[in-house]
Amino acid sequence: MKRISFLICFTLLAGLLSAQGQKTVKLNPPDLTRGYPVMKALSLRASDSQFDTAPLKLQDLSDLLWAANGINRPAIGKRTAPSAMNAQDIDIYVFLESGAYLYNAKEHALDLIAEGDNRNLFAGRQEKSSPSTIFLLVSDISRFRFGTDSLKLVWAAEDAGIVSQNISIFCASVGLATRPRAGMNQQKLKDLLKLRSSQYLMLNHPVSYKREGK
Q1: In terms of Cα–Cα distance, which of 179, 177, 172 is closest to 126?
Q2: Which of 179, 186, 213 has the alpha carbon at shortest distance from 202?
Q3: Which distant-in-sequence residues (6+ apart) come within 8 Å of 17 by Cβ?
Q4: Closest-CA residue to 137 (of 55, 177, 81)
Q5: 93: closest CA among 112, 117, 66, 80?
Q6: pTM of this prediction?
Q7: Over the stretch 76-122, which tens digit does the pLDDT of each residue have?
Q8: pLDDT tens, position by position, 118-145
Q9: Taking Cα atoms as reference points, which of 143, 199, 191, 135 lies closest to residue 166?
């Protein structure tokens, strides 16, 4: 009996250590049937200041990332969010308690970029609680085929705004809390993520479940 208990504990421990060392998190296929109709979602869209600390379930995280900027036409590689010249300049970094991840739309997966909890690098003076998840929208303007840097930054702002709206509408549709915001420690985030000079931090979205009674 003791040997069986030991084997069970060893197996569970080995699985836990394996999961902790995982560098890629494979997301679930998006559930295309969930949520309110678009007009109902628009009527509910709001900028929240109350956030729950419970981690998002994998399906909710999977669906939200796909809705934000996932590939909705696999045959031609195009996204749920349009971009100037189809440059697909917007990358989404996901900050969780366990680390910072980059959304890989082609694989519909999260790739680990930096271990540890760095959610404190985002300003939240209007928030009364800490969100479990933060989405960071980064534009790589080198993906635009032509134009001056000043013009590319205009396109980058437009593209980031569209992805931001996708996040807001999805959250309203399924009952998640979010808000777009610009406050963050730009330099520390650039250093943490090892961003190039062509990559610009545009917006971030705290995301969580609705707090009870809110």
Answers
A1: 179
A2: 186
A3: none
A4: 81
A5: 112
A6: 0.88
A7: 999 999 999 999 999 999 999 999 999 999 999 999 999 999 999 99
A8: 999 997 655 556 799 999 999 999 999 9
A9: 135
